[in-house]
UniProtKB/TrEMBL annotation:
SUPFAM superfamilies listed in its UniProt record: Obg GTP-binding protein N-terminal domain (SSF82051), P-loop containing nucleoside triphosphate hydrolases (SSF52540)
Entry keywords, A to Z: GTP-binding, Nucleotide-binding
Record-given protein name: Uncharacterized protein
GO BP: ribosome biogenesis
Stored PROSITE patterns: G_OBG (PS51710), OBG (PS51883)
Length: 532
């Protein structure tokens, strides 16, 4: 029967079509397809990106419209061309959900504004390009305008230049780098950049004669920045690894970046993003061009204060001036270097295998990877240590440092930047490292090497309230080593701890708290460590 054959053909077609949709593919077919494709994507190692070069460009303003509305009563016509829309901005948003810069693109362009149209209709505003960066991002300026902290504003009044979604600067939140920050060279040069861009009527024409837009600028910036012009930028390469997909092509960028960096003058630390949700405007969208309706309006009011001006009426403008007024302005451009410096109250520093990650797990709810081999920790782990009265402290566990790390031995010392801003240092030493004929380093030598490596990374980095965690006290013979350690290292509190069994942890927590609260101020001093 023909209808039977048609029904069979139809069901066969449905069966074939089902393979085109991934949701309808039967499981056996899926496994078959996977085997044909050849592989499940292998996990590859990839460097964590905690330094990143960025080119940001605001969207171009839309062009203003030049149109005349004619009617029976007005044959000559009245100007009714609308203004072009503002270009979008490039904004960095601080997010706790982002760990590093691996998902960022090097070039960020915001959308351009729409062109104005007749009947005095303003062009649409270009959409902003908002990208998320991790908490603790520090911004260095290579080229362009200094960035400023912004806030999304609610729509207040109907102003064609402030259409909904635009951003407004909160002057109280002008960028300020904290005063207690220490530069690599120890020198700190302050520079205040006042980019106030309130455009007044007087700016209608610049001194060069080029017509300027006189509409209200939506932004007023006061960016306090401190520059470290004499600083040498630390090595770009980040030496720890993360399991993720790889993008080899980006490595080339990093190499160019290092070469360029040597020649260019960088304004260091112009802004910091430390609060989740904080937004930083790095490239502004260009203003839209004026429509002829606005030019007429503006030129009339302008005429009263500047009788001799050429633009007494828009109809008298020649072609060139008209074009310059109606063309949307390009967005601003900026070249930036983003650098991530984790923010934690306590930094755990120690040699590989000292038990830092185990300790972090014992004092906080963090669950870092622990292994009996060196360099288990390949990227910093942050844990939250909460006290019974809900006083909370963040603790950063960074990869192990070995002697010569500043010469790139082991994992290098680039990740030490993550403890640059910690208030307190906890040196974790392995009491059992040199026991039972092991070829390890004695705890006092561990301490000396750690202090030296910190100082090689940044002068004065070890100069902050510190304590020593004498870990693995449970090991046989460790008690004697602990006693020896107390004799050899003075001027700093030493806490015997067994991180695995969480012994000595309450005392350590109390010690950390008194250091953070400023009750204790002892520092580990190289002169007070006795080494054979
Ligand atoms: N006996 C004993 N072993 C410990 C103690 N704390 C840590 N360990 C062991 O020491 C080894 C290293 O511990 P981790 O916490 O990974 O050390 P780490 O300092 O983070 O090491 P890296 O990741 O290389 O920097 C693991 O096998 C732990 O089980 C302790 O208190 N006593």
């Amino acid at each position: 029967m023909w209808w039977r054959r048609a029904a069979i053909a139809h069901s066969e077609k449905l069966w074939r079509d089902s393979f085109k949709s991934p949701w309808l593919v039967p499981s056996f077919a899926l496994s078959d397809m996977a085997s044909k494709k050849g592989k499940a994507a292998p996990l590859q190692e990839r460097r964590m990106r905690d330094k990143f070069r960025l080119w940001a460009k605001g969207g171009e303003g839309g062009n203003g419209c030049w149109s005349l509305r004619r009617s029976r009563s007005d044959r000559r016509g009245r100007p009714d061309g609308g203004n072009g829309g503002r270009g979008g901005d490039v904004i960095l948003e601080c997010s706790p959900a982002v760990w590093d810069f691996s998902n960022l693109q090097h070039h960020l362009n915001a959308k351009g504004g729409g062109n104005g149209v007749s009947k005095n209709k303003v062009g649409s505003r270009g959409s902003d390009k908002v990208v998320q960066v991790p908490v603790g991002t520090v911004v260095h300026l290579v080229n362009g305008e200094a960035p400023c902290i912004v806030e999304t504003s609610s729509f207040k009044s109907l102003n064609p230049w402030e259409i909904p979604g635009s951003l407004e600067v909160d002057p109280s939140k002008s960028v300020d780098v904290s005063d207690n920050k220490v530069s690599a060279s120890g020198s700190l040069k302050k520079e205040k950049v006042d980019n106030s861009s309130q455009r007044s009527k007087d700016e209608f024409r610049s001194s060069s004669g080029t017509p300027q837009r006189n509409f209200k600028s939506y932004i007023s910036e006061e960016v306090k920045s401190k520059t470290y012009m004499n600083d040498s930028f630390t090595s770009t390469e980040v030496d720890y690894m993360e399991i993720n997909d790889d993008e080899d092509d980006e490595d080339e960028y990093e190499m160019d970046f290092e070469q360029e960096e040597e020649e260019e003058v960088v304004q260091y630390s112009v802004a910091e993003l430390t609060q989740p949700g904080q937004r930083l405007l790095v490239a502004k969208g260009g203003e839209g061009g004026l429509g002829n309706a606005s030019i007429k309006k503006d030129s009339k009011s302008f005429k009263t204060s500047n009788q001799n001006d050429d633009f007494s009426d828009c109809e008298h403008l020649d072609g060139e001036k008209q074009t310059s007024l109606t063309t949307g302005l390009p967005g601003s451009e900026a070249v930036l270097i983003l650098e991530l410096k984790s923010i934690a109250d306590v930094g755990l520093v120690g040699m590989p295998n000292a038990g830092k990650s185990t300790l972090l797990g014992a004092i906080s709810r963090a669950k870092p990877a622990v292994g009996h081999y060196a360099f288990t920790t390949l990227r910093p782990n942050i844990g939250n240590l909460t006290y019974e009265d809900f006083f909370s402290v963040t603790v950063a566990d960074i990869p192990g440092i070995i002697r010569g790390a500043h010469e790139n031995r082991g994992l290098g010392h680039a990740f030490l930047r993550h403890i640059e801003r910690t208030k307190v240092l906890a040196y974790v030493v392995d009491l059992a490292a040199a026991l039972d004929g092991k070829k390890g380093i004695t705890p006092w030598e561990q301490l000396r090497d750690l202090v030296l490596e910190l100082e090689y990374h940044q002068e004065g980095l070890s100069d902050r309230p510190s304590l020593v965690v004498a870990n693995k006290i449970d090991e046989e013979g460790a008690e004697d080593v602990y006693e020896e350690l107390k004799r050899r290292v003075e001027g700093v509190p030493i806490f015997p701890v067994c991180a695995v069994l969480e012994e000595g942890v309450p005392e350590l927590k109390a010690g950390l708290r008194s250091l953070i609260a400023g009750v204790e101020q002892q520092k580990l001093d190289l002169d007070k460590i006795i080494v054979d």
